[in-house]
Amino acid sequence: MSTPSLESAIEASHKALAAILKGDQSGYLELFSEGRNTKVELIEKYVSESLACVAEVESGEAKVAGSEEMSRVSVRVTSVFRLEAGNWKLVHRHADPLGMPQ
After folding, report:
1. What is the mean pLDDT of residues 40-60?
2. Among 1, 77, 84, 93, which one is most buried in terms of CB atoms within 10 A?
3. What is the fold of 34-102?
């Protein structure tokens, strides 16, 4: 059995991104390593007539840096939404780690 190349994984991520931008997340979920105990904590939400900014902390357990062991991981996430034709659309998302895995 051969191992898929990095180029194949990158291409799969590009195809999945194109699909997720059209609202289909199914292919994107297959790209991630196993994870568990995911929790999202809302920190703050600011909403105007046509823009919204949401700050959250996402945490869970995942394999990090090639380890076979599961580690606690928390990331601070900022998402910006814009109201388009009556629907809120995600226009920006940024995440960065909160400390080192435990």
Report:
1. 89
2. 77
3. Nuclear Transport Factor 2; Chain: A, (3.10.450)
